[in-house]
Design goal:
By secondary structure, the protein is an alpha+beta fold. The protein contains 7 helices and 21 strands.
Length: 333
Amino acid sequence: MKLATYQDGSRDGQLVVVSRDLETAHYATGIAHRLQQALDDWNFIAPQLQDLYETLNGGKARHAFPFDPAQCLAPLPRAYQWCDGSAYLNHVELVRAARGAEVPESYFKEPLMYQGGSDDLQGARAPIRGLDPAWGIDFEAEVAVVTADVPQGATPEQGLDAVRLVMLANDVSLRELIPDELAKGFGFFQGKPATAFSPVAVTPDELGDAWQDGRVHLTLQTTWNGRKVGLCDAGPDMRFSFGDLIAHAAKTRRLSAGTIVGSGTVSNPGVEKDGGRREWPKGYSCIAEKRAMEQLQDGAAKTGYLQPGDTVRIEMKGRDGQSVFGAIEQVVA
């Protein structure tokens, strides 16, 4: 099923069930007011939401209305936890190679992960606001999952069983602030402003056979100022599955229902061409990768970061060509 959170003037919005084709919606008020409420009592509430979803898809929901992504908050406008991994090693290798750094062997054995701000998660149409362009504003197109309760020390299999919902994310980064923060040895903070999420979150079964081994085997499309810059396959190059990422997060602590875990920037390796020059036919999911490619191939990064008025669109379509989660569409305000 597909779920979203509509604005209603409150902090957490109101839960709605959305049709498979993203055309219609229905308030879930009689079942659960908020998505977190459903996650807290999933085994009891989810079947009721599923019944409403099937009724909606069958065109028999009495109080259905046209679905409007512009009315959506993030599926979880505030969450107990937002843990973002870096599961695509090509992204790590590329940005490190551009500054002449090797990838430590440990990166191949366990994922990188940081804990982001989860108290102010943005809707898909929220502007990227209040940021100085000199800070190096960058988009990062990602896949994310929402979990049930996860016990401390969970295995990857237990982590995968705990996945309740899948969605997309734009994990905005401030590239010119991050190096100084990392140099202090205490991780990201100011370099990671509010993250935006797709209008709709979907249960894994909605993805069909595209959901395999804790990975989404579909193309993530990124558009910058109306030009497609990334058509990256989110499946095969994800070194660590969502089960692995969740198990990593739960190694020393329990995770509460409603924890969000991100994949990191979706990235595919390039293809060697004549003369040893490498091409990236599938493009990029963040500007930092484009700049790294330029640094490696031409000796200097030429592409600038986001500027006021720039637009970013992130979307994923199913095998039927239809949008799965709706699109993240943001403007730098």
